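In the previous chapter we treated chains in isolation. Here, by contrast, the input contains two separate entities that must be folded as one system, with a combined length of 908 residues.
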Amino acid sequence: MTGPQLQHVDLDLKGSGHLELNEAETGVHGFWIFLMSDAMVFALLFAVYGTQVAATAGAPGPQAEFKLGSAFIETLILLTSSLTFGLASITMKYDRSCTKLVALLCLTLVLGIAFLGFELNDFATMFSDNATPDRSGFLSVFFALVPTHGLHVTAGCLWILVMLVQIAIFGTDARVKLNLLKLGLFWHFLDIIWIAIFSVVYLQGKLG
Amino acid sequence: MSGDSLWYLLLGRLDAKSLPFVRAWENPNISEIIGAFAGALVVIGAIALVAVLTWKRWWRPLFLEWLTSLDHKKIGIMYIALAGVMFTRALIEAVLMRTQQSLAVNAPGIVGPEHFAQLFSTHGSIMIFFMAMPFLTGLINYVVPLQIGARDVAFPLLNSISLMLTAGGAGLVMVSLAIGEFSTGGWSGYPPYTETAYQPGVGPDYWIWAITLSSIGTTLSGLNFASTIYKKRCPGMHLMRMPLFCWTTLCTAILMIFAMPPLTVATALLALDRYLGFHFFTNDLGGNMMNYVNLFWLFGHPEVYIVILPSFGIYSEVVSAFSSKELYGYTSLVIATMVIALLSFTVWVHHFFTMGQSPDINSYFGIATMLIGVPTGVKVYDWIWTMFRGKLRFTPPMLFSVAFIITFVLGGFSGILLAIPPIDFVVHNTVFLVAHFHNVLIPGTLYGLIAGYQYWFPKAFGFRLSEGWGKISFVCWVVGFYLAFMPLYVLGLGGMPRRSQALFEPDYWPWLLVAEIGAFILLAGLVTLFVQLWVSVRDRESNRVPVGDPWDARSLEWSVSAPPPEYNFATIPHVSGRDTFFLRKVHDGAYKPAHHYRGIEMPKNSWVGPLVGLGSAICAFGLVWHIWWMAGLGFAGIWVPVIARSFVRDTHRWIPAAEVEVADRHWLDLAHATHPVPRELEESHVNRGLAEIIPAEVAA
């Protein structure tokens, strides 16, 4: 081994003065646990969704309200953003300059915002159909589960913004690298959750 | 803009009637006056605190040395101080409830129905979330890093944030005494009763946000403890060499990580119902309150083990130390702890056998519940075998441990009864249940926490607590418990419903009177604990144990001075077996200087924790009263410091090797100059924290 490395994630912390390797290890470990706890939140929301999907109480149901086309576009956008973040992680490891990293992060940010735009547009359409959460158990749980993911994506976008500022100030010092690593985990985690939402909520609602 | 809407914009739902003093003025009955008195106590207490801090010039040290500290030991102590304050309030409420019931047999008593409902709601919520949880989190914080040979927890700043979130929640419950009212929905807050349709006021909102803050704080604590134990153990400290308290902490941490999210989800969905008109748990439009009940107990049952397992760990440490013996059946205790943690996720339905599942489902959950008795039984035998032929010393921690074994087994038996669905159908919602869960939680959690407090106090502060007062307190806690709760078994079998403000069966009265006497003796137990603290602080010079091992104990936390240095260990210890400090003592390896001292890097203090706590409390208060600008301000108050902190690079400070060496050699000189104390004299002032080693134990 040539220098400090987080082996399991291949994060090169070479030349980083003030961040100990085991501190980085512990940090990543803790973040995985956080994701596990957050996954519990989503698992439970999915469970509640399962019990209340039929409780439409005379209000518009999944068939009437879901637009598969738009959900599919959202899926593609979010998956692409995961790809761009993955490329950013590789760039962070191998490239010395920050330019490409910043460009990829900006691209990810734009895709994240585009995703949110499409999603908000979906919600607005539903609201204009009078499909609001105060009308039925189904709409309540829909507007709890899907926007919770959306809020996570929003938080992720803000986090990318903060990281862009940090790169501008600190360059890619060890702490920035470590934060980007955690942010990457978070971003990919949201992708996995979205795939579950697309399958359980949209596909099941429209085709099931 | 009209005056009303301006008022709403600025102060939301707050008005003069929100103040209990105004309510008592307008409607001066005894119940309202008690409420106003309690509110006044909070206000006077706050003013007195500010006055004392100002008079003693303690503001600077309070903030600079304590509230902003990231030292796990100080955070632990602050957690326990918080628990002590909340404990006092919740126990007084318990006495008030017992008084009400003993007076209210065919009579109105002293507190009205709404007030009584608030009392049992706050009593339960506080005892679980703001007494038991902070107390055990505090002990874990203090002890675990020392036991595993670490300098701090994995994430010191997160630790401070957890503490401050919990404190914010506790503050909210206290504020509800003086401004507004608390929920009347019990500690479990079942909808639809806690929905806006039935409780439009602020009560359930106080409950929701106080619990949510505690829940998030606890999730973060769990994460922190798990990472600490997995990643921060010193060289040689294999998992199976950890003291048992670390094992129970690990299981508790895992439970926190997985069991707190259901609570957060439950309270968040209830908040959506109340604030935005969603229909999760309402009676109409597709709401289903069973979802809440399942979510709540999916948290609630593991929670039982979150609060009990750490105490099991404490008993293991205490019994072993005061028997002067290795813990019997270490491996079986570890396995039993893990099994309990696992099974705790499979039994939640036994909290609502009567709510409409099929008999098959009830049978499954009944059997799963009884299964938990097996690993618990294993533990009880292990503790008894640890004592067998040991050199027993009945110090207060040991007395609490012995009382626990006997009393907890009784509570376990009534639990096995309740695990049988047909029996549960008969006694559910009676005080039989109340007797049962107090019968497991008081010995199972509280005795352990008190034992742990007395056991580790000399380590934390450098002087012993008065054993005499400890024993008086012990008698109060045990006698008080039996008098207060055994009658409830009888009353429950006699059909007395729980949470009753008024009763109409004259035959209940003698039993209620006994329970009332018991409640006062329990209160005396708490008072004597405070007296013990006061007496011990007063006499601290004659009770000092600076060498740090007053009980001839076995694990690493006793191998350093009392109180330990900020960095815990001058050099990180290397461990070659279980009970490592004990091995060192008998092989003459303890109290040796290091070959080479190095400088130590420790985290600097940070204001982020207190600011996050303050922001969360302000945000929650704004949400409770619909003061939206305040909620937004508080929310910003949480995140601005967190984001700003991520830009700070200078987070550590360096303690030079020379300073470490001087402190360590000073302590070692003291240890060499100290006369070792034999076990018979450990409760006397001769005990300076250096244990006499009996060579015969090497053979054993």
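The two ends of chain A are 53 Å apart (CA to CA). Chain A touches chain B through 41 residues (CB under 8 Å). Compare these points with the single-chain example from earlier in the chapter.
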